[in-house]
Write a structure and sequence with these properties.
TATA-Binding Protein, disordered N terminus, Alpha-D-Glucose-1,6-Bisphosphate, Chain A, domain 3, globular, 3 domains, single chain
Length: about 475
C-alpha cells in the first residue's frame, strides 16, 4: 500500500505523450505543475550549457494559455535562461519554425492542440524544430518529477524584461510567413483568383494564413475567428462533424474551397467546392500526387500506421516506397529526414513536406493545397475522382472509447499482452509495434491503440467497402465491450 503522501505525489506526476504534456485545467494543469515543468526545462537547458540560447515561448488561445506562458517565462528567467516572448497568440508551427531557422536549443508552446476546451498543456520543441524524442521527454519527466514546489525559482515578469533576460518578439510571424511564401508558386495562385471560406475554429492560425493568401490576391471570408476558450462548445479539431457550418457556407456561397485549422494550427481540414468534407487521408494522397507529378519532386512518402494505404499504391505507381511508422509525428519527421521523403502525414490531419519544418503545419499545408488547385486548374473533386479511379475506392472509419484506469489495464492485457483478437477473415498479418494492427489480404487494415494525448482507445479501419470496414470495427467493438463488462 502507498502512503497518502506517496499517492498524492503519484497523482501529480507529469507525463509527456505524443503531443507533449496535456492535463485538465484546474486538476493537473495548475500553476504549481506548470512552474515545475518550466523548472525542469530550465535545469535540462543548464545541464546542456544552453542557457544563453534564447527560448521562444508561444501560446494558443485557450483559457490560461497566455498566463501559463508568463509563469514559465518567469521560471526560466529566474534560472538565468533567456526567453523570447510572443506579444500575441501564435500557432505551434511558428515556434517550430523559429527553433529551426535560428538554430535554437528548444522552444515551448502552451497548447492542448485539438483536445477539448477543458484541457491545456505544454509542448516541448527541440533542436531543428522537431517534436521532442521519447528519450528527451523521459529525461525531462525524470527531472520534473523529482522536483517539489519549493524547488522552483521565480522572477517577476517585469524584472526579467528589465534585466534583459526576457525579450518581446513583436514581429515573430514575418520569418515564418516569408519562408512559406518563398516555397509557393504565388503567381499561379494570383492567376486563379480563388474564393475561399476559412474556419480557424477560434484558434491561433488565422493571421499567417490570411496574410499569405491575401498577398496572393485570394478572397478569404472567415468564420469563428474570435477568441473563445470554449471553442463555440465544439471540439477544436477539423473533422467532418465539426466542419458542418463551413461546409454549408462553401456550398451555399459558391466558394472554391473551405479551409479549417485546429486550435493551435497544426492540423488542417478541407471542404471541396461542392461542400463535401475531404478527409486527411485524401489530402495526403492529393498532395503527394501533386508534388511528385506536377512539381517533379522525387522520393518516397511516409505515413503512420493508422493512415491510408492509398499512399502505398500511389507510391508504387511512381516507383517509390511508402514507409510506415508508429503514431506520433516525431516518427514521421525522423523517417522523412532519413529517407528524404517528399511528404509525411497522418490520418488526423497533420502533415509536413520536405525542406519545411519537421512538425505538422496546417498553414503551409493549406497554402500548398491552394497552389495545387491553382497550378493544375482542377477542382478538389476532380483530383479526388481521378485518384479514386486510378488507385481504387477506400472507406476509412474511426471510433473511440473512453475508459477508466482499471478498464485500460484489462483491455491492454487481453489485446496487447495475450494478443486475443475478434473473429476476422482474410487476415494477412498482425503487428504489435504500436498497439495492434491487423492487415487484410484486400489491402485494408484495422488498428487498435490507446491515444497518447487523451484517455481514449481508438479504432481506425480502412477497406474497399463500407460494409467490410464497418464489420471490422464492429468485431473489435464487441471484443472491447466484452472485456470492459467482464
Amino acid at each position: 500500500m502507498f502512503s497518502m503522501k506517496e499517492q498524492i505525489s503519484m497523482a501529480h506526476q507529469i507525463k509527456f505523450g505524443t503531443g507533449g504534456w496535456r492535463a485538465v485545467i484546474g486538476e493537473d494543469f495548475i500553476a504549481d505543475n506548470i512552474r515545475r515543468v518550466a523548472q525542469g526545462v530550465a535545469l535540462m537547458i543548464k545541464e546542456d550549457g544552453a542557457e544563453n540560447i534564447p527560448v521562444p515561448i508561444g501560446y494558443d488561445r485557450r483559457f490560461l494559455s497566455d498566463t501559463a506562458a508568463r509563469w514559465m517565462a518567469e521560471v526560466l528567467c529566474a534560472n538565468g535562461v533567456k526567453v523570447q516572448f510572443l506579444h500575441r497568440s501564435a500557432p505551434t508551427p511558428l515556434i517550430m519554425h523559429r527553433v529551426k531557422k535560428f538554430d535554437l536549443y528548444c522552444g515551448l508552446e502552451v497548447t492542448a492542440s485539438h483536445n477539448p476546451s477543458s484541457y491545456n498543456g505544454i509542448k516541448l520543441i527541440v533542436r531543428e524544430g522537431r517534436d521532442a524524442s521519447l528519450e528527451a521527454t523521459q529525461r525531462l519527466e525524470s527531472i520534473i518529477n523529482s522536483l517539489e514546489v519549493e524547488d522552483v525559482q521565480r522572477m517577476p515578469f517585469e524584472k526579467a524584461e528589465k534585466d534583459g533576460l526576457l525579450e518581446f518578439l513583436h514581429n515573430p510571424f514575418d520569418p515564418f510567413m516569408d519562408d512559406i511564401i518563398a516555397r509557393l508558386d504565388m503567381q499561379a495562385i494570383r492567376n486563379r483568383g480563388m474564393r475561399i471560406a476559412f474556419d480557424p475554429m477560434h484558434g491561433s492560425g488565422t493571421y499567417p494564413l490570411m496574410v499569405i493568401l491575401c498577398t496572393a490576391r485570394v478572397t478569404v471570408d472567415i468564420i469563428h475567428q474570435n477568441k473563445d476558450a470554449y471553442f463555440g462548445a465544439a471540439m477544436p479539431a477539423p473533422t467532418k462533424h465539426t466542419l458542418e457550418e463551413l461546409a454549408r457556407k462553401v456550398r451555399t456561397g459558391g466558394y472554391d474551397l473551405g479551409i479549417a485549422f485546429d486550435g493551435d494550427g497544426d492540423r488542417v481540414g478541407i471542404i471541396d467546392e461542392k461542400g463535401r468534407y475531404v478527409s486527411a487521408n485524401e489530402i495526403l494522397a492529393m498532395l503527394y500526387w501533386y508534388l511528385h507529378e506536377f512539381k517533379g519532386w522525387k522520393g518516397p512518402v511516409v505515413r503512420n500506421q493508422s493512415t491510408t494505404h492509398m499512399l502505398d499504391r500511389i507510391a508504387e505507381s511512381f516507383g517509390e516506397e511508402c514507409h510506415e511508422v508508429p503514431v506520433g509525428f516525431k516518427y514521421i519527421s525522423s523517417k522523412i529526414d532519413e529517407t528524404d521523403a517528399v511528404l509525411g502525414g497522418e490520418s488526423s490531419g497533420g502533415l509536413t513536406v520536405r525542406g519545411h519544418i519537421f512538425g505538422k503545419d496546417s498553414i503551409y499545408a493549406s497554402c500548398l493545397f491552394v497552389e495545387m488547385l491553382s497550378a493544375t486548374g482542377m477542382t478538389t473533386s476532380q483530383i479526388l475522382d481521378m485518384l479514386h479511379a486510378k488507385y481504387g475506392d477506400t472507406v476509412f472509419l474511426e471510433e473511440a472509447f473512453t475508459f477508466e484506469a482499471a478498464e485500460k489495464a484489462r483491455i491492454a492485457k487481453v489485446i496487447l499482452e495475450d494478443r486475443q483478437l475478434p473473429p476476422l477473415e482474410d487476415v494477412e498479418k498482425v503487428t504489435y509495434t504500436d498497439g495492434c494492427k491487423v492487415y487484410f489480404t484486400d489491402g485494408g487494415f484495422i488498428t487498435c491503440r490507446f491515444s497518447g494525448t487523451e484517455p481514449l482507445l481508438r479504432l481506425m479501419a480502412e477497406g474497399p467497402t463500407q460494409e467490410k470496414t464497418q464489420s471490422h470495427i464492429d468485431a473489435f467493438k464487441a471484443l472491447v465491450k466484452s472485456i470492459i463488462e467482464s
